[in-house]
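[Meeting: bench + compute handoff]

Bench side (C.D.) handed over the final construct sequence. Compute side (W.E.) agreed to return the predicted structure before the next meeting so the bench team could plan truncations. Sequence as handed over:
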Amino acid sequence: MRLSLMLEKAWSRHLSWILLLVPFSWLFRLLAGVRRLYQARLVPNPPLTVPVVVVGNISVGGTGKTPLVAALAHWLQEQGYHPGVISRGYGGRASRYPLLVTTNCSPLSVGDESLLLANICPVVVDPDRYRAAIFLLEKTNCDLILSDDGLQHYRLPRDIEIAVVDGKRQFGNGQCLPAGPLREPVKRLKEVDFVLTNMTTSDLLDKTKDRKTASLQNSTSFAIEPIQLRQLNSDEVLPVTGLFDLNQPGKIWFKDWGYGLQVHAVAGIGSPERFRDTLGSLGLDPQLHHWPDHHNFSGEEFAFQDDWPIIITAKDAVKCTHIINDKIWVMDVQAVPDSLFLKGLLEQLRELKS
């Protein structure tokens, strides 16, 4: 955990000791290029019988990709499609692949993100995403496939590529692994169909935040907005719009919730700072406790010697159902894509049908 934090800090600086690893980054880029050539051109798989939309990124770490996939699945259903999702099932180790995910599956087998998405539409996990796609088509009535991640999985034929960018971290120092956070050079974004930047309210106010993506064709943004807080061990729900009376600062509406209330923010996600900032935007005073992405919680992580409420993400909540602690609340969020992006996506999907 400490090493990952050191790397993240180093990657955010254009001048640091991490640049000593640049020669290894050149080697990484070379090998990545050879792998892409081999997978996409020398051993290509036959096209699939339904449109394939890949939602991925060119950097490591959380970018808001899974909430976006969830939002797209909901939106596509509203447009009359029957989407299905394929995923590597990162963080899980199933005894067999491919595997159709159900809500009864263990996150230890299928991963946390796949379990979240299975509440919306059919999901199949498999490190081989092409095999996952074939299995999905065999077992469900899906007429469109969303690939959660897999932008660099070139054995998977795709019709539309969506690259997701973190509006806060952007591309770090611009270097590829291991000297930087990039899986592929930034110029890869010129090849995708859409670039979506995950922008917070503060990011949107800072016009310099999206300067690196604004010039790209089909570049838009999306926001991840909190919907509600729900108690982990009960059905109690607090809609964030009713947490506080904005006309009477400090008025308590629900139990002890109020402006400036100190809370523990516990997260095992790729971008925990965004989680902390979102809680702060709700008027809370969060103390962040960061665990590695896809961390499996035992319950000891929540043993605090105070009575502060504990707030976790929905992604982490699927791994905490066995924990009995009435101080734990889950923050549910939704991604809100730009309307111009949705219009463009729908046009491209209709062109694929014609």
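W.E. noted at the follow-up: Confidence is low (pLDDT under 50) at residues 245-255. C.D. will use this when planning the next construct.
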